Amino acid sequence: MADADCVVVGAGFAGLTAALRLRQAGRSVVVVEARDRLGGRTYTETRADGSYIDHGGTWIGPGQDRIYALMAELGIASYKQYTDGEAMMIVDGRTYRYRGTIPLSMRPWVSANLGTAFLRLRRMCASVPLAAPWEAPKAASWDRTTLAQWLTGHVPVRQARALLEMALAGTYTSAASELSLLFVVYQLASAGGPDFVLGVDQGAEDSRPVGGMGAVYRAMADRLADDVQLDAPVRSLRQDSTGVTVCCDDTQIRASHVVVSVPIAIAGQIRYEPALPLERSLLHQRMPSGAVLKCHAVYPAPFWRDDGLTGQSAAPDTAAAVTLDACAHSGGPGILAVVNEGPTARTLSGMEPRDREAAIIDALARRFGPKAAAPVGFTHQDWSVERYSGGGMISHAPPGVLTEFGPALRPPCGRIHWAGTETSSVMYGFVDGAVRSGERAAREVLAADAA
Ligand SMILES: Cc1cc2nc3c(=O)[nH]c(=O)nc-3n(C[C@H](O)[C@H](O)[C@H](O)COP(=O)(O)OP(=O)(O)OC[C@H]3O[C@@H](n4cnc5c(N)ncnc54)[C@H](O)[C@@H]3O)c2cc1C
């Protein structure tokens, strides 16, 4: 039995930030992490040639002020995503090259319908109060509507609907029929709207930390030194009037407060004694994650840049639904990220890795030409089966959940405080949201201590 002022459960961005801020405020902290590594839904592999691959969360963008501030504090610079060329959209076997967020080179009625849908979504976002989306004027009706129903009713042009469905449902790595419209609008609004969430330049994929996300989480862990315990899944939290006992398989830690930063989709795997208040307990059963598979093809050089391409492409119903240039700040070697989400990710997840790799490379070669057929390296990261993530990228709310259980998202339950990107009302689902949630949870613990 060890003692600390606070135990933080989980060493992702939310947990490490909470721990860092508490340490800076003079509190003793122990971070307990289930995995044998740091970072949670971010996971950086540094390669022998000095380049790096972010298998999970990767990009940052303007407005994500807390991750930028944290990087500045830790002395980590950022670099811009490569956008000096054209992106590609492949629909019904036809390739459209374009610049910007909306592919204006498609048939005019498709582009116009996409433009109208963006306009509508922007207006809807403006009506959502971020701290309490369940109080939005149309919260009740939007929370009874799925994203699929809304797309059917408001985006009449089939190709526009298919593209928007892939982009939006893909963000939540689920089918559009699983997602509450209120949740989708809330998540978009939390990040400033659809232009940011679906955008690259000046959007959610504007930049990356030099060294990848690992440079940031490793620097935080360095400052916490011996206070991070890996391979220590928390099994139960026993709370009484004087503190909380955190039980792992081999250790117990007694603390005045606990910050739980695990994804909400798996927060219910921890046993809470006494049982959590009903609303919180039921919330844990109602915010699942989707499926996402992120692979990387490595080439001697980013050959697509010489072909006037950014490396960004989208092709619904192929084995490489989304691609993005994922080169390190030095530019070489050529690293192409391939992201498959939702139903496609589930299908690919069930394949033998060798067959999956062949299917993805075949899709890349059809899109980018013969040079794409011969990568010198290939990586797979199947978040769908990661036990301590419960899927990826983020937990979402199906219909009815935000209006019924949303108010239980953030308030502490006695000495248990909740962090994690899903508790952030700004930049929900992003690394920046995770950092914000960690900082908010740390402030909460300090305030509770002072009371
Ligand atoms: C493929 C993919 C791509 C993404 N792309 C981006 C992107 O480009 N930009 C962006 O901003 N965001 C992106 N995200 C989302 C981003 O990674 C997450 O929002 C963020 O990392 C969440 O941080 P967190 O600390 O809230 O949760 P997590 O990172 O999930 O941290 C929770 C930690 O708790 C640990 N844990 C779980 N259960 C227990 C237990 N019982 N006991 C102890 N520890 C436990 C986990 O192992 C984990 O380390 C992406 C995510 C994925 C999966």
Automatic annotation (TrEMBL):
Belongs to the flavin monoamine oxidase family. It comes from the Bacteria. Coiled coil: none annotated. Gene3D superfamilies: 3.90.660.10, FAD/NAD(P)-binding domain, Guanine Nucleotide Dissociation Inhibitor, domain 1. The keyword Cytoplasm does not apply. Keywords: Oxidoreductase. Residues 13-446 form the Amine oxidase domain. Its cofactor is FAD. Pfam families: Amino_oxidase. This is FAD-dependent oxidoreductase. The keyword rRNA-binding does not apply.
